[in-house]
């Protein structure tokens, strides 16, 4: 549903969810509602609860990143991550990129950390692993970026950490490679993972 701010999107969605639970008999455990902010997620759950009662609190209502964190905390060990993995925010990720650029002996003016991390983030959002990026790189400049990407991911792995892009990519990878581990994950999310572009983040290398 695409509409402008204040047009009633949340009201339409909450009434649709309430209809599924109250009139169609759909289990709240089978419903996934994704919002962009934690505040909106809480408001949506409260609105549905006003319509159908406390059973609404059994739904999955969260942001994309929160849903992925929940999945990875539970089953991320299948990808080699501890359940206590750290999450690097944007500032952490840019700093780590800068350390990698420095340690690889690259010119920090030619390879500014923020710009390089933006390239890495875009590659991840296109479903490319560090290895994929290296294989597709053309020319010395892109190859250097590939080197940074590889080392950046290696350091995240050593630290037992993921950045925001990894939360999304690794959750999709987990659901795609280990569908049996998706236990109470709503069917809608499992289906989206199954339709993901082949090759997406096969491994966080």
What is the count of helical runs?
9
Order of helices and strands: HEHEHEHHHHEHH
Structural class by helix and strand composition: mainly alpha
* Strand content bin: 5-15%
Overall geometry = elongated
Which value, in Å, is the CA radius of gyration? 20 Å
The assembly state of the depicted protein chains is single chain
**Strands ordered across the widest β-sheet:** 1-2
Report the count of strand segments: 4
The CATH topology of one domain comes to: Arc Repressor Mutant, subunit A
Mean pLDDT across all amino acids = 86
Low-pLDDT stretches are: 190-205
Separation of termini?
A: 35 Å
Biggest β-sheet description: 2 strands, parallel
CATH class of one domain: Mainly Alpha
Question: What would CATH call the architecture of one domain?
Answer: Orthogonal Bundle
Helix content: 55-70%
């Amino acid at each position: 549903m695409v509409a402008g701010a204040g047009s009633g999107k949340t009201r339409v969605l909450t009434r649709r969810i309430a209809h599924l639970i109250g009139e169609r008999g759909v289990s709240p455990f089978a419903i996934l509602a994704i919002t962009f902010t934690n505040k909106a997620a809480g408001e949506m759950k409260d609105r549905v609860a006003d319509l159908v009662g406390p059973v609404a609190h059994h739904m999955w209502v969260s942001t994309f990143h929160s849903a992925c964190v929940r999945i990875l905390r539970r089953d991320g060990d299948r990808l080699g991550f501890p359940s206590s993995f750290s999450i690097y925010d944007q500032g952490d990720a840019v700093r780590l990129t800068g350390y990698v650029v420095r340690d690889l002996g690259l010119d920090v003016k030619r390879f500014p950390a923020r710009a390089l991390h933006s390239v890495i983030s875009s590659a991840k959002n296109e479903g490319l692993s560090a290895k994929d990026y290296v294989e597709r790189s053309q020319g010395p400049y892109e190859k250097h970026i590939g080197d940074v990407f590889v080392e950046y991911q290696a350091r995240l792995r050593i630290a037992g950490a993921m950045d925001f892009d990894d939360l999304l990519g690794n959750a999709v990878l987990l659901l795609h490679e280990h569908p049996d581990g998706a236990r109470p994950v709503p069917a809608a999310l499992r289906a989206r993972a199954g339709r993901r572009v082949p090759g997406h983040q096969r491994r966080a290398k």
